[in-house]
Amino acid sequence: MIASVPSATLLGATGHPVSVEVHVSSGLPGFAIVGLPDTSCREARDRVRAALLSSGLRWPQKRITVNLAPTGIRKAGAQLDLAIAVAVLVADEVLPPSAVAGRGFLGELGLDGSVRPVAGTVPLVDALRATEAVVAARSVVDAELVGRHRVRPVADLRSLVAALADRAPWPTPPRPAPPPPEPPEPDLAEVRGQPFARRALELSAAGGHHLLLVGPPGAGKTMLARRLPGLLPDLDHRAAMEATRIHSAAGVGLPAGGLVRRPPFRAPHHGASPVALTGGGSGTLRPGELSLAHGGVLFLDELGEFAAVAIDALRQPLEEGVIRVSRAAASVALPARVLLVAATNPCPCGAAGTPGSCRCADAARARYLRRLSGPLLDRFDLRIDVALPETDALLGAPDEETTAVVRTRVEAARARAAERGVERNADLPAHRLDELAPLAPDAKVLLESALRAGRLSGRGLHRIRRLARTAADLDDVGELVSAEHVALALQLRAEPAVLIGDAA
């Protein structure tokens, strides 16, 4: 007999429907899986057999062939275990075909018959072509996020078979434990003595402009970067679902409510490989740190210590908001719309710029600088020097604006950008800048002077205009961009040679 059961497989951060077809026939007992299974799929034979026997069910002593359709997509992971087990029972006539009609099955089987959760539950359930989704009991919150299926959580194979055969009611979904209180976000008021850097942080949050912080150790670069997510507004439903699918596919724990509503913050170690940053892999194409930060902040601390090939791999995704990973087996497009914040010392010892303090040899400084390519630096709208704060600012009474106050201005600026048809000013199309960011006559003179002096490239010109547009929105001065805001944008986009080269 032949049975067909709906399930799904994961490719990148997207689920793809899979039909698990099982044929049970007379002949020499055996078990074969076809349809481009990977190693974990082929191992399902032993897991399914042990789970059936441990649950008091019969393992057919016949020829069993499992086909995972469509055959053009590589199947990876153990989420097909449950569908294979149910399909074997239907093909062996232990369960009627009507028991699986309109139901999709996702879950890994333990040798004792338990049904375990799998990574990628959200995109996998989203791919199911069925009205009901049967998942592990611990996956019920994730599965219900999709909102298009009736979720049937089960703890073990024995109770599932009893429910499918109408011998017992479906298990009651477990009541989720009350979520723990969210830890408070770090407050911008804790940053003292850095008015210039605080202004740059506010502009970055309001307009979605990439930010580079250069300064000696202890100046507060990391402290500033970690307070940037608190200035960003909550993700809308579409962006929240995209971020949730990515986190689910990567096996990253979701927040208590399931949906990723706050902008993510990712800070990979500087030893991360290009694949760890951009995603991919030789076996399973998984999202990398760039995609895990989708909708939020990707913070690269000690930028000069990252491998040059790793950080240069970010150049194209920063422009397009998507990373395309191609391998021999498959190609995927992963969302990668991030706000990049990087921090670096001006030289390996970090003391460059202070007379008589730098201990780095010329060769060491040259190697350090070569890792930061010009095209990558050109993608930072904001490039600022973060000096050590004054003693009085550190020891004096706190008198800085809080995150809540600054976020109010950020949200107002983003609302103005939405009226122009974009989420943030960094997304303004170049061909509409004359319409959406008109320049005052004296502002045009400033930009012309910068272009003639070779301070700006064509891309840099557009970035300066978008940054000046954000500064004008924060000051709520109308649609015309003044020379004051252009001058501020030019000041906050310091030349790399000024920040790093000359300081060294």
Properties at a glance:
single chain, 504 residues, alpha/beta, 4-stranded mixed β-sheet, 22 helices, 16 strands
SSE layout and pairing:
Blueprint: E1 2-11, E2 14-25, E3 30-34, H1 39-42, H2 44-54, E4 63-69, H3 81-91, E5 103-105, E6 108-109, E7 115-116, H4 121-127, E8 132-136, H5 140-144, E9 150-154, H6 157-164, H7 195-207, E10 211-214, H8 221-226, H9 237-249, E11 265-266, H10 274-278, H11 289-292, E12 297-300, H12 308-312, H13 315-320, E13 322-326, E14 331-335, E15 339-344, H14 362-370, H15 374-377, E16 382-385, H16 391-395, H17 403-419, H18 433-436, H19 441-452, H20 458-475, H21 483-492, H22 496-501
Parallel strand pairs: 3-4, 5-8, 8-9, 10-15, 10-16, 11-12, 12-15
Antiparallel strand pairs: 1-2, 2-4, 6-7, 13-14
Helix pairs in contact: 2-3, 7-17, 19-21, 20-21
Describe this structure in words.
The chain is an alpha/beta fold. Helix content is 36%, strand content 16%. It has helices spanning 39-42, 44-54, 81-91, 121-127, 140-144, 157-164, 195-207, 221-226, 237-249, 274-278, 289-292, 308-312, 315-320, 362-370, 374-377, 391-395, 403-419, 433-436, 441-452, 458-475, 483-492, 496-501, and strands spanning 2-11, 14-25, 30-34, 63-69, 103-105, 108-109, 115-116, 132-136, 150-154, 211-214, 265-266, 297-300, 322-326, 331-335, 339-344, 382-385. A five-stranded parallel beta sheet has the order 11-12-15-10-16. It has a four-stranded mixed beta sheet with strand order 1-2-4-3. A three-stranded parallel beta sheet has the order 5-8-9. A hairpin with a 2-residue loop joins strand 1 (2-11) and strand 2 (14-25). The radius of gyration is 28 Å and the shape is elongated. The mean pLDDT is 88.
